[in-house]
Amino acid sequence: MARVGLLVVGLIVALAACSVEGAGSSPSAATHDGSSGPAGSAPNSPIALRHFADDDLIAFDYPAGWHERAGGIVPSGNWPVVFVGPADLPSECTTNADGSGECRPWPVIHLAPGGAVVAWRFVGLPGDSPPTGGTPILVGGLSAFRTIGPADSGCAALGGDESIDVTVPTIPGHYYWFAAAACLSGPDRADNEGAFSAILASTTFPTTVSTSP
pTM of the entire structure? Predict the structure, then answer.
């Protein structure tokens, strides 16, 4: 009988020890892949991207959910290569009632709150000098300059309230220069500012695009 009593006491002690160990362990400690942890502990999925490439001009990545529209020639040496943005992008050119045409710096849209549109352009005529004001940065391995401020007149006409302009003044072998611009509308611009920074980080030019298959 004394032996049975000792066995019962031992079993109670063992169960108590297991209970204390379980209470002190983390709920997600059973696995290292985050599957048993809280929903927020799983790693974020990478943003899906699309790739734009014009072998003679420029290449870059942009969010897969965005839209793309090729630009057209605008007088005075300003040629938008492409526009991208989260909303549908109509043409930047319109036809007047008298049959004449007019092309603007941006597609003819009105940005929704939190909206954005981005343009890559090549700019300049022989003999022109590119602007060099702003914060020095690198784009596609080349020196560039960035300015951020209130919307310029073209951006404000779209309903934007912030303009970001980037000039890449020296493209070896070309007389013109490249310029990127983002027109953003608030109140929350952080995601679109980040998307524009990612576009710049992925950009390559004819002199830096890999020629390997």
Answer: 0.73
